[in-house]
Queue: 2 jobs
Job 1
Amino acid sequence: MDSEKCGKCGKVATSMCINCKTAFYCSRECQKSDWKCHKTQCRSFEIVSDEKIGRLLRASRDISAGNILISESPIIIGPKWTLDEDEEMLKFTCVGCFETINTLYYKCPSCSWPACSSECIGLLNSELHDIECQFIKFGNGPKEKTNIKSIKGYFRMDTMLALKILLLQRKNPKKFQAIMDMESNEKNRLLTSNFKEAEEKILFLEENFLNPLEKAEEKNGQTILPLKDRKILHKIFGIIETNAIYINLQTGTEICGLYPTAALLQHSCLPNVSYKFDMKSGFKISVKAAKDIKKGEAFSTSYTHVLWPTSVRQQHLMDTKYFTCNCERCIDPTELGTNFATLRCIGSDEGPCNGFQTQTSKFEFSCNKCPIKVSMEHVNMITGRMNEEVDNLLSLSPNPATIEDLIEKLSPFLHPNHYLLFNLKHTLVQLYGKHKDSPYDTLSIDNYKRKLSMCEEMIKVVTALDPLSIRIAFYTSILLYEKAMCMYEMHKHKYDNIDLNEVKKCLEDAKKIISVEEDLTEGKQLLQKIENALIKF
Ligand SMILES: C[S@@+](CC[C@H](N)C(=O)[O-])C[C@H]1O[C@@H](n2cnc3c(N)ncnc32)[C@H](O)[C@@H]1O
């Protein structure tokens, strides 16, 4: 730095821009006043085009872990455009802040759509509830005003994000154009269920708002909204499906946003960036390097779930984003050595062969010890049935004994790390020591050893699948916490020669990992538990 001069005034520089490390300054004031000019060069990436992937972000220099790569506001924020069964059946969504509401207690005074309360921050914030309010207030309202099904069928917040985008052509044409420039997968969507679902939402918007508007436009000889045909609406739904990034509100409610640069992050099941949102600054996203990134490497995030096996992730990516992932995990039949979808080979008529079957082609599972092959269809049928059994059991708040029974039943067919056993064991380790049927004081040495070994096995799996702890921080942190608590209790009961330094290290690792999710209620609660446990050391 000695020889560097301040980029603003030319004096000897004493600091540099920590983001790009290429601009030098003599003082904070100089750095601040240079930001307007420097911010355009501070970018650590370039936008390039790839034949298969389309546009992507590529590092334009070596980047250190922790560097902020993108920091930007959303073009638009809105409620989710698909609802799960529970949301569809029971709940309403606040038109202002998009939080879930259970009753129709309060309404927006202007448009009369359901809202959470008179203090709703969204009703006062023009970024959240604005131009659409002026628009939906002219809607017909529910056909049967006392019938809950009819009321639910009218206040369709799953159409709201598309409507907000459509209305941007009037409110902010620049933002509208920025969204229209995003990838829509228009051709790939044709004939898919996504297209059909969008079609149904478009019919709703036409019937209730767009057709009446068109009639009014004709009557008055004045066009208010030039673009409102089905083609543009399908394009908007395609853009939302392809680019929207989910945002978890503190309460756990998911909403989504469209971000101009972050939308260009490509997918990898082993991503190299992480991101978080700042709720206070209008859901600004900040994307950070999760590891050192070399010049020329693409920035990547994961569009899918880490704890799904390859076949399920691939199907999900194809169904929602229309491509096949070829990352290191996807092309490895053992899923990075975890055997997350590996089955035990049942062998031939002569008996089991003690081998394991992994997926070796798109259509087949092969054994590593004998010539047996099983079709993907067959595997899907068997694991589908097992999956149902696992889901059913876990939905019934089971006790440890019933989970152990199911693990015993499925174990002859599955690798110990198989994702179905993983799900059961992840619940089981949290129950041993806490469930009323098995508090710590009543656990046998075998129970303790079992809990500890399950935690250790699963920590290896999550470390392989999410080495930077950016996608399943909660799962990983829980495992480390449960391992630490188990070891601590074993030490208290003098069951084993436990190294308390290792217990402390586990808790510190758990704390570090969950700190990225401390903005969420669940994350905060876990962090509190870990901090309480750390007081003992
Ligand atoms: C959020 S957009 C990313 C930006 C997009 N590439 C563009 O040009 O606007 C998601 C789309 O990018 C493409 N894509 C992203 N990651 C990919 C990958 N790993 N392999 C192939 N295509 C990918 C797919 O077409 C996907 O639907």
Note: The chain has a mean pLDDT of 92.
Job 2
Amino acid sequence: MTSLPVAEPARTRRAALRLIRLDGRAFAVMILLNALAAAAGLAGPWLLGRIIDEVKSGAGVAAVDRLALALLVFALVRLLLSRYASYVGHRFGERTLARIREQFTERALALPVSAVERAGTGDLITRGTTDVAAVGVTLRDAGPEVLIAAVQALFILGAVFVLDPLLGACGLLGLIGIWFASRWYLRRAVTAYLAEGAANSALAEELAATTGGARTVEALRLEHRRLRSCHDAVEECRRTRLHTLFLRSVLFPIVDVSYSVPVVAVLLVGGTLMMRDPSAVTLGTVVAAALYLRQLSQPLDTILEQLERLQGSTASFARVEGLALAPRSAPSEAPPVPADDRLEVAGVRYAYDGGPDVLHGVDLSIRPGERLAIVGPSGAGKTTLGRLLAGMDAPRTGSVTVGGVPVTGLDPDRLRERVILVTQEHHVFLGTVGDNLRIAAPEATDAELRAALAAVGADWVGELPDGLGTDLGHGAHRPDGAQAQQLALARVVLADPHTLILDEATALLDPSTARHTERALAAVLEGRTVVAIAHRLQTAHDADRVAVMQDGRLTELGTHDSLVAADGTYAALWHTWHGVKE
Ligand SMILES: Nc1ncnc2c1ncn2[C@@H]1O[C@H](COP(=O)(O)OP(=O)(O)OP(=O)(O)O)[C@@H](O)[C@H]1O
């Protein structure tokens, strides 16, 4: 399985800056308001210092009252400013998250089917849900909180330096412990938390597999083996959790002690200075500086707490942004128009994900209106050729063209009008019956939808409470396998392609469903070019021509009768199958 790309750090940074620029005004207002709130917060300790000095110098109650009132006013101003700042910040976060979601949906829809198939839909879903949500939380909470805390910490340190540069230097020196401890921690935390997350996922997977397959486990007496693997998974969870706990148990005590160090240093140095020369520094200044440094623990705590989250969501954002690096399916400018409906395969070689070639130079010309069956042993390359014919993948070398134009060069709408691959997977989308059908023909009228449903024998739609307007899916009408297939085939009728690539759509169905589908299919095939990847030789017998594939090569091509007469591989297959039938 090949994962979808992940953006490298420089690209992730550029994308983040682009998002900020798109809502630059709100971002600037948020920063400004936070800075003002932080500045208002600085008044508290300074005013307290002033009160102490006023009391010491014997000033009256009125002076102290004035300072106390100012203290109250600044506290109120700070509260209002920071409230408004977080309101602006949250709005900025939600708008940006909406932008990321829209961009993600756009990019996901532009991905070629082959890229999603190779990465597994799980990867795309995790990026679209867990990763986008993690980025959202960061944008709304962690990001602004860290910014606010950083501004506050800077202002507080600045204030101590303004009060007295020597006391400021003492405060700064006291913080060195935090700097080293957090660097030590952050270097190890990412891997440790990733390992813990992976161990949790593995345990969940083990438990789900054991409970989901309980009957099989019981029938095959696998209890001991399952218990052992669950036990191993639990043990790994414990081990990784203990490691992250150890990291925290080192960091937090050091940080807690380090918060007190600058305060103690300021009190010691300030006290010594005062005793030596009372005019050098006042008691109020020393107390204010100590209070400031005490206040510093709050923003620093926030920064440390959120840094981890920021690291996690940076990884998430790199995965979300990585989608931009995936190949896009639709060609952008002036898509070419096919001259006619002839499908040509010329010198096609194909390899999955840089592996060995599984098609080794296939040439095939399919006439409009013809029915061609492709047969061959399992792994011969029939499905791969079918996917290339339907434009779901491009050949490594050689070409697959319709009317002279490469099928992968057609835009999706035009390709849908030309070639459609019909497989056994029939997805029913959330929405009404009409919505499910209009995917293939957005402009179709209700009458056209009904005609398509009638063509595939989907009479059941007429009996639904709201007909075409009936909701399908959870909590609404849930179509069974046969009905889902009829909807898929009605979509094909509506798209009206001239060529159908049929991956033996009925081969894996139960007999009653298969009967229904075969009737519907016969109606759909009428008047079209059909390339059937045949698992049953009856399909080959009924076709105009049969192509035999072996080991990625087209080894025989001709009518059923001529191939039987030629007495080659097809004849042998036919006789074996016929023999088995009789
Ligand atoms: N997604 C994939 N990744 C890597 N190799 C693949 C993939 N799908 C098919 N192959 C390989 O390509 C070769 C051709 O497979 P393909 O499915 O086209 O054969 P097939 O004739 O359709 O077989 P079957 O009748 O079993 O469906 C096989 O060797 C198969 O293992």
Note: The domain at 344-581 is CATH 3.40.50.300 (Rossmann fold).
